[in-house]
Amino acid sequence: MSRQSNRxxxxxxxxxxxxxxxxxxxxxxxxxDYENDEEVNKQLDKMGYNIGVRLIExxxxxxxxxxxxxxxxxxxxxxxxxxxxxxxTTPSVTNWSPAGDEFSLILENNPLVDFVELPDNHNTLxxxxxxxxxxxxxxxxxxxxxxxxxxxxxxxxDNVTEIRMKFIKRIEENLPAGDE
Amino acid sequence: xxxxxxxxxxxxxxxxNVYKEQQSNKMQMDNKDRAACVSVLESMGFRVGQGxxxxxxxxxxxxxxxxxxxxxxxxxxxxxxFRRQIDNLRTNHQGTYVLQDNKFTxxxxxxxxxxxxxxxxxxxxxxCGMVRGxxxxxxxxxxxxxxxxxxxxxxxxxxxQKL
Lengths: 180, 163
What we know:
Chain A has 180 residues and is α+β, with helices and mostly antiparallel strands. In chain A, 48% of the residues lie in helices and 16% in strands. Chain A is built from four helices and four strands; from the N terminus they run αααββαββ.
């Protein structure tokens, strides 16, 4: 019995490592391709966006969560369902703005950065910026325009990793596909 | 523990991104561009394969011989990374091995037959790199290529380089 469960735990762990190592290889490659950290951050955000617009379908299919009533409910679903399902960690939701349109996700541990250290010459690199893009892309597909950014990062010496999410506006459903 | 779909989504986006970047200003990609893309993906896979095999074989005893290593790749490595075992291993006992996976995980989402066959190679480059990286850290230099006739079945050819 326990051997069986060890194997499942092992294979989940291996998936974690596969993802973490692959993400690391990606960031390394991007740093080689682009001269400065800002460009890498932008690319990570763009790639995250492309992943997010697809990931939301997987999420909705597997979680059977209905439409959220308000931004507070959205925050809870992101932290307690989505993060738990995909990254195996539940960040806490805090620092709500008085208007209720902005909050922080505090991550105690971030699987993306297992075994990662930033070298000195990459002070402005937002290593996990893919996450911001994913959240932005996913929420856009459910009609929410949001701004997502890292305000604290354990990789850069902070105690916790903090992602700030701000509600910009509701996206109207019947607009033609964007041609900006 | 991260969910397995995250790797699949990330891999898909990486493939798409590498090709988009290479193509950026040109109308058509030529074979040199395509080779460059495959090479980038393969070298990323190489690093990942090296890392994975280290973690996987931490507590294992050393391997008896080359065939032993290849069997490990077909069973343990394939299971941990691709969530299934190799269906068929053939060798000429002179350093060439053909590993057949009838339901290769990177291809199952693409198609179930011959549609999009020309897109298959770009989705295999990273995996070839992973196998080459794993073998490299086990002391074997190799050339790893993949061939697809009908998706999602695919054959990996490993040629061990003798010094």
